[in-house]
Predict the 3D structure of the following.
Amino acid sequence: AAMARLLDQLPNVQTVFGMSLDDIPPPARDVVGLRIMAENTSKHIRVLCFAPQSMEVMLEMKSVIGEHPWFSVGFTAHGPLRWTNLALEVFRLTAGRGIPATINGEPMAGTSAPVTLEGTAAVGNAEILAGIVINQILEPGRPCIYNFGLAHTFDMKTAIAVTGGPENALFAQISAMMGRFYCLPSCSWVSTEAMCPDSQAALEKMFGFQTHVQSGVSCIWGVGQLESELTISPGQAVIDNEMIEYAKRYHRGIEVSEEKLALDVTRSVGIAGSFLDHEHTLTHFRDELFEPSLLFRKRRSDWNAEGMKRLDERAEEIADDLMARPVDNG
């Protein structure tokens, strides 16, 4: 009944998939968003919360799927040092069910926090700790995620909230470090101000994924996102997937062992020999060497023959092929 009341507010339920969430009344946005995501993925879902009254509906949707925490909620402190009534109601109405809650500190250096990164971290940490305490009072032992990775800087020339700068990577590092300090999982995003999958997106997102992985952030999101998370690009998602695999291989590092040092192999090959046809090469090359699925590693003649396609063009073709396949929700 509660779901029916909310969905009745939609202008046309049949066309919801062709609409923006901005076209849907706020009390129904999170419900519709959850439904769309649940119908198109079997992965964990982090829903956006727009209205307290929709929490009841989402709890009903959770009970239909099962008791596994297949989605989580979260909210951001609208500071400085302030939690809104909407945020507190979301926490209150979802308490008691073991639903994970992401507690976001989102101070902006220079506007809602001191311009220094250290001062911004102090404000954001205070906001997050207050949110965690509130949730533990409402539901002792509720799973909470420490999220300082949403912090921003303010571009003093353009008045833009920056999401893809080097400072954002430092905020993510702080989120990971403080999460470990409090024995909590941490999270952060990888974003860019770029409007399309271009060189700027490549620079900012590759740097973001690498530094997030290196910092040990527990949960990293932002795949496919552009324009400070206002735009989703399937082609960028394919490129991001390549970046993530690239960063993960670097982060895995080098394993020093007798097998990997391969001294006996080198002796058997000898001076001026070849390792290409050795059994050791066959055994280890797939695990040892990064094999891209998108990056171009052929000769210029091959590139010319394939139409000199740019990386983003090839990524879009792969994305179109993937999106054309049916979704298996188990």
Notes: The mean pLDDT is 88. The CA atoms of residues 193 and 228 lie 5 Å apart. The first helix runs from residue 2 to 7.
